[in-house]
Every structure is written in structure tokens, then in C-alpha cells.
Amino acid sequence: MSQTKQAKILVSQAQVSQEQEKHTASLNKQDEHLKQQTDQLENIRLSIVQTTRQLDALELNVSFGEGNKNLVISGTATGWLVGGLTLTESTPPRKVNVVCKPTQLEYSNRVRHAEIYRLFSSAMPVERYYGIARHQGSLWAVMEDCRTLDSLAKTIEQRKLPTAVEARITLAIEAAQTVSNFHSVNILVKGALTDANILIKWEEDVPHLVFTELQQARSVCSFVPSF
Predict the structure, then answer these.
(1) Is there a contact between 162 and 22 (Cβ–Cβ < 8 Å)?
(2) Domain limits at 114?
(3) pLDDT, tens digit (0-9, with 9 covering 90-100), for 192-225
(4) pTM for the whole thing?
């Protein structure tokens, strides 16, 4: 065998080895992420049980009172308020776009749902919840502004999803794990689980899922993470 042919074989073997190492590293990273998420879910489950037991003692925490300087309302859209929120807990503080959705539940359910959704949004790929705001005498749930994100349906239709099989499998695992997480705390998302309600958020050219419209979800234990 010629030296040139041997060199090509060695290069090919090295490339295969590198791809295997990358694949193994990716799988290990996914396993670590799932383990962390599982631990977070167990803490959420325990917190929800505690929240339900202490419901009568809970009070609705208004994070942003009338005229709060961190929350700036700039307009309205389809019954929502829109604006910007300065996250002072970040270093340095950063500004994010938000929508404020009206709370339409009786007081006790507002308290319960706000607390449950706060717990969910800390560990699941859902619209991020920032707190309750009081504006012009009404209460509003301050949520991440996802209006510029494409739905999963539109992303598929426009063929924007990654073509790599591994990337698509990662999305499928993320979706399955999220549904499993909801089920683990007795939330059924069948009614809310559509390709129109699941949005795609791109971070460094990597797609991630964002579950929305969770007010359509049904709870086995009479609570739903919605407002």
C-alpha cells in the first residue's frame, strides 16, 4: 500500500474519531441537561404541593405597582399591553420586550396560578413569566414577548429547521421531555400541544422550543399554569 493511500486512511480514521467524540460530548451534555431538569422538576413538584396546601395563606404578589420605573408600557395589541422591562437582577441590568396579559380569574386562582406558572417558567421552555403588574387599576401578567417568533408549523413549512438528523432528534427529545415534565406535575397539555402554539427561538443558530397558550392545558388537580 502506498504512503499516500495510508495517509488518506489515517486522515479518514481521525475524522471519524473526531465526529464520534463530538457526538459523545453532545450526548453527555444532553444527559447532564436532562438530569438537571429532572432535579428542578422534583423541586417544582414539591413546591406545587406546598403551594396548594398553603393556598389560603398566600397573597398575590404585585411585582410592578402603578408607575414602576422598571416596567414601561408603550402601547396595546389585541387586548394586551406591550412595552419593555428592565431586569435589575441581571449584571449589568438588561431590557427585555414584554407583553402584559389581563388576569381573568377570581382572586384565589390568580394567586395559585401565578405561583405555579412562576415555578414552571424557571425550568421549562415556556413563555417566561416576570410577575404581576398593576396598571390603571387592573392586574396584568407580565410575560415574555414572543410575537416575533415563528411557530413550529411555519418553521417546517418554510424549511428552516436544521437538516441534520441529530439536531431534529434533539428538538424531539426537548418536546417529549417537556410534555413528560408537565405530566409529572399533573398538567395535561393535549389541548395546547399544537405546532401553531409551539414557537421556535433561535440561540446561536440553534433552535429551541417555546410552549405557549398554556391556558388551554387541563389540570388533573384543578389548577392550570395560566392567567
Answers:
(1) no
(2) 58-144
(3) 688 898 999 998 888 889 988 776 665 544 433 3
(4) 0.67
